[in-house]
Design goal:
Blueprint (H helix, E strand, L loop, with lengths): L1 H18 L1 H7 L10 H15 L1 E2 L2 E5 L3 E5 L3 E4 L1 H10 L8 E7 L7 E8 L14 H22 L4 E13 L4 E10 L8 E9 L4 E9 L3 H13 L1 E3 L22 H4 L1 H10 L1 H20 L3 H8 L1
Antiparallel strand pairs: 1-4, 2-3, 3-11, 4-5, 5-6, 6-10, 7-8, 8-9, 9-10
Helix pairs in contact: 1-3, 1-9, 3-4, 5-8
């Protein structure tokens, strides 16, 4: 089973590498060290991720902030291996990365979750009482258009926001935020759409984001997974949202709406188009396994070329 999963992941990441090829090509124009073979690095990163993957039953400690009690059927990829995996697909991991979660039985079978902790300070949730979803969508579109400038400079294709998959919903009892936007390549007439399904857990010193990346056709069946993972994250005593001390704690420079319409626009871009490829790549991987089982690997490679 592990060997089959490895083949699937490698094929997935190999196609993602081509999907993000402009950024990789830009990075290799003036290498400071001997150039790395992208395919070999993807292969190595996938092997390292699977080898380090932790599965149920396990509690994943997220810095000094929280614990993720990993549910059955999920696999957690530690920070170092997640960083390598994201770099291998052309995505900068960032200093706030806390790891990735995948399906432990079928790694990267149409989705993955990126976990981050942002030490922004206490995020006030007052604006969630009267925010307007249509206005937030307009702001998100404007922010995405502005972030397209950075994507162009880095060689990434531009994107645009089609609409809500999940309107912003905040639970003031649990301090959890959920929202999701549907994206596509800017100006594209294709029916293939990517989805970032964003869930947030607010804390005393910042927030955790769990970003589920997938294809539009799969998101309906994956929403329960996102909810299950969000519920599995628990802040440590003293780090909870309700532990906030107004006389000593730092307050974030933005409110809850900014997690939807402001800071979200930049994060939306790096992963937005990956979801478009997930379903197609999974099908390719299945065909590859069939070809291998039938002794037709050479034929598959020739057709792929």
């Amino acid at each position: 089973m592990r060997e089959s999963c490895g083949v699937t992941v490698r094929l997935l990441l190999f196609v993602l590498c081509f999907a993000l090829a402009p950024s990789l090509a830009t990075a290799q124009q003036a290498p400071k060290s001997p150039p790395v073979d992208p395919a070999k690095e993807l292969d190595a990163a996938a092997d390292a991720a699977l080898a380090a993957m932790r599965t149920w039953p396990t509690d994943v400690r997220l810095r000094d902030q929280a614990v993720l009690r990993l549910p059955a059927g999920y696999g957690y990829i530690p920070v170092a291996q997640s960083q390598r995996l994201l770099r291998a697909t052309g995505n900068p991991p960032g200093s706030d990365l806390e790891g990735m979660v995948i399906d432990s039985a079928r790694p990267f079978a149409g989705w993955f979750v990126v976990i981050r902790h942002v030490p922004s300070g206490y995020v006030k949730d007052d604006d969630a009482r009267d925010w307007n979803a249509d206005e937030l969508l307009s702001s998100l579109r404007e922010g995405t258009e502005e972030a397209n400038k950075e994507r162009r400079s880095r060689g990434f294709p531009e994107i645009e926001v089609v609409g809500w998959v999940e309107r912003p919903a905040y639970d003031a009892r649990t301090y959890r935020l959920v929202w999701s936007a549907e994206t596509r390549g800017k100006g594209s007439a294709s029916t293939e759409r990517g989805v970032n399904y964003n869930t947030y857990a607010l804390g005393r010193e910042g927030y955790f984001s769990l970003n589920l990346v997938t294809d539009r056709t799969l998101i309906g069946g994956l929403k329960p997974r996102a909810a299950e993972l969000l519920a599995a994250l628990a802040y440590n005593e003293g780090k909870r949202y309700q532990d906030f001390n107004a006389s000593t704690d730092r307050v974030a420079e933005f409110g809850l709406a900014a997690l939807v319409a402001g800071a979200a626009a930049k994060k939306l871009g790096l992963f937005a188009l990956i979801g478009v490829f997930l379903v197609k790549v999974w099908k390719i991987a299945v065909f590859a396994l069939i070809a291998i089982a039938a002794g037709g690997l050479k034929l598959f490679r020739r057709k792929s070329a």
